[in-house]
Write a structure and sequence with these properties.
Layout lengths: L4 E2 L21 E6 L2 E5 L5 E5 L4 E4 L7 H9 L6 E5 L5 H4 L2 H6 L3 E5 H7 L3 E3 L4 E3 L10 E3 L2 E6 L2 E6 L11 E4 L4 E3 L20 H14 L5 E3 L8 H23 L4 H6 L13 H11 L3
Parallel strand pairs: 5-6, 6-7, 7-10, 14-15
Antiparallel strand pairs: 1-9, 2-3, 3-4, 4-5, 8-9, 11-12, 12-13, 13-14
The chain binds zinc ion.
């Protein structure tokens, strides 16, 4: 049933990648703006647009939740999902692709995200193998830097700003409604997982966050990859935390310290440990300077 093989059991307080007991998961729907919602269940936040053209979703969580997600959407539209936009390749955001694709949805992603979905990838931090999707689960439309969709009265700008959380991230802005879905380049579970072996980079992620901040104003509603609806100020605070930690690591590198010595200096001091701790995040920051 699952295409992932958990190589070992990793207990995390926030379980962003966890394959929960899906029978127990309920899908909750949060209104963001007229006709725009985000859905929470297990995995990444799902953006939802319903309207006269049909149903457009951003990410689709885990395959065993597809029917529950469809039931939740049916409260808002009688149409099937016509478009699925993937913010990046990670399975907690794309595992439903094969189901939605087989049902006729057109999947859209950045080029590199599709490329990774055609391959088997090992996710080092969570020790999980994510295998290639079948043809139904692969994006039929891809783009390099940006793509614009005109749907349900919205101008939807999707943009890729280079390496960040992975090498195939895309953010989506509903221009008129002033709503942005960031995918995992912005999350609310504490220090962010950055998939360095699959093209992610802390310095890149900081740069991408500044691009998003520049696209936002004080009224912008930001749907993060995981966690609660956020504001531009939340992103400003978050990126400043990442910059402080990044700079501490860089000072150590400049002083000729090893990763072990830098880790021992506790670069994350003053910030809470969550999914990532001092050791795992110091390694992400350190490795980001040697790519
Ligand atoms: Zn991710």
């Amino acid at each position: 049933m699952f295409k992932k093989i958990a190589m070992s059991l990793l207990i995390t307080p926030l379980c962003i990648f966890a394959q929960d007991d899906f029978d127990a998961i309920e899908i909750t729907v949060n209104e963001v703006s007229e006709g725009i919602y985000f859905l929470e269940g297990s995995g990444g936040n799902i953006g939802l647009s319903v309207g006269e053209d049909g149903v457009f979703i951003i990410d689709d969580q885990f395959a065993p939740l597809t029917e529950k997600i469809k039931v939740a959407i049916a409260e808002y539209s009688s149409e099937d999902v016509q478009f699925v936009f993937n913010t990046h390749f990670h399975y907690d955001h794309t595992d439903g692709n094969e189901n939605f694709g087989a049902a006729g949805a057109i999947i859209v992603s950045q080029d590199n995200a599709r490329l990774r979905m055609t391959q088997d990838n090992f996710l080092q931090v969570v020790n999980v193998q994510q295998n290639a999707y079948n043809v139904d689960g692969l994006p039929k439309v891809t783009f390099t830097d940006s793509i614009t969709l005109h749907y349900n009265g919205h101008t939807l700008h999707a943009r890729h700003f280079g390496r960040g959380h992975t090498d195939g991230d895309a953010i989506v802005k509903f221009e008129e409604a002033n709503v942005i879905h960031t995918g995992d380049v912005f999350v609310r579970y504490g220090l962010p997982f950055i998939d360095v072996p699959n093209g992610g980079n802390l310095n890149g992620m900081i740069r991408v966050m500044h691009e998003i901040i520049a696209m936002a104003d004080d009224r912008t509603k930001i749907i993060p990859g995981h966690g609660e609806l956020s504001s531009r100020q939340d992103m400003v605070d978050y990126v400043s935390m990442l910059e402080i930690i990044r700079d501490r690591v860089y000072e150590g590198i400049k002083a000729g310290m090893t990763l072990e010595q830098i880790t021992a200096s506790k670069p994350i001091r003053g910030y809470p440990v969550g999914f990532l701790n001092n050791e795992s995040f110091s390694k992400i920051a350190y490795d980001s300077f040697f790519q």
